[in-house]
Structure formats: C-alpha cells, structure tokens
Amino acid sequence: MTENLVLIADDDAQIRELLTLYFSKEGFAVETAADGAETIVKAQQLSPSLIILDIMMPILDGLEACRQIRRFSRVPIIMLTAMGEDEERILGLDTGADDYITKPFNPREVVARVKAVLRRAPAAVPDKDDVLRFPQLEINLGEYTATAFGKAISLTAKEMELLWHLASHAGRVFSREQLLESVWGYTYCGDTRTVDTHIKRVRQKIGAHESTPWDIKTVWGVGYKFEVKA
User: Which among 216, 85, 99 is positioned nearest to 146, based on CA atoms?
Assistant: First the structure.
C-alpha cells in the first residue's frame, strides 16, 4: 500500500482534476478512476489509503463498487452524493461506506475530512479482547462483529465504531459534534446528519426499542446515549 494514496473515483473529469490538484498540494499521492469497474480494479491493485467514490458512475455505480470493494477490503470510503439525495446516502452507508459528502462541495473540506480519517486509522485498530457484553447483546470490536438475541448483526465498520463508542460509555450523553470528532475524526463542519443516519441504521440493525434491555436513546436538544435498563 502506498502511504497516503487517495483513489478518486468520479465520472466528471473536472471533479477528478480539481480534487487531484488539492490533494497533490497537500502531499498526497493520487490515482483516479472514471467508472465503478475501474475503481474496483484499482482498489485491488493499489490498496489505497482511502477512496473517494461518486455514486452516479457508468458501468458500475458507486453503490455496487462499494459493495464489491467491501468483499476484500476495509479501506475507508467516502461517498460523493447529490444534494438532497437522502436515500442514496442511506444506501451508501448500508453498502459499507464510512461517510458521505454532498455536491457541490468545498475541496478544502474534502481534504480536511480525508486527513481526519487517516489520522484515526492507526488508532482504530482494536485489541482482539475488546468485547462488551450486555443482556442479549455482545459487541466484539476486535472482530468487528455484533450479536443481538443470538443472531449475528451485519454492521459496517463505522456503525460498529459508533455502537462501540456509545456502549463503552453507557449512560453518558454525547452531542452529535462530539460523536463526529470521536468516531469520524473531524470537527463540526455545519452538517451532523451523518450521525443521525448512522444512529438510525444501528438501532434498526440491533433491534433496539423501548422493550429491549438496552437502547440508543435520543436526548432531545443534546444528542444520544446508550442506555442499559435496570
């Protein structure tokens, strides 16, 4: 793997050139791809540090490319989505993306987010014994697995890290801004919807609701907490 190699996948040549310019100025190595199939091939051949992946691309779209990349790699993936395409964002996160950035975007923000993700990467490698156990729920960060009511739960890497962060501080309330910094690695940039989307997905997947022994509670006006019921 080339250190700090960013793979930029977008069928818009101007976007590829713009991001390549900004990342090169910051000392990154850059490779580009113009469609989903090319992205998968380069992800296998080059083992990039991070992939910036547009959803709307020819041959294979970004969602399918993300899905296939996740079969062989846990490389951080940031999706590029059109403004207001909430369903695309949810699908992107569900196929294994770590985050999304909406178009139009400020290229400086894209660079800042990538830097934050790469700073967190070494710290994100868990200890093999990192396991949390609650009634009918086990979270194993070392293996990136979770089991609820005896059933294995399919969580993306970022969903697992979010669940672990909340559950390992059970009872403590975290603001969206705090979760962005702790789990995603970057400070508040004016958009915390990615936290809300991930929380919703995690609650659905682990089956959290009012009658379970635990829940991810919304603390209105503040944020979220993992609550273990007596």
Answer: 216
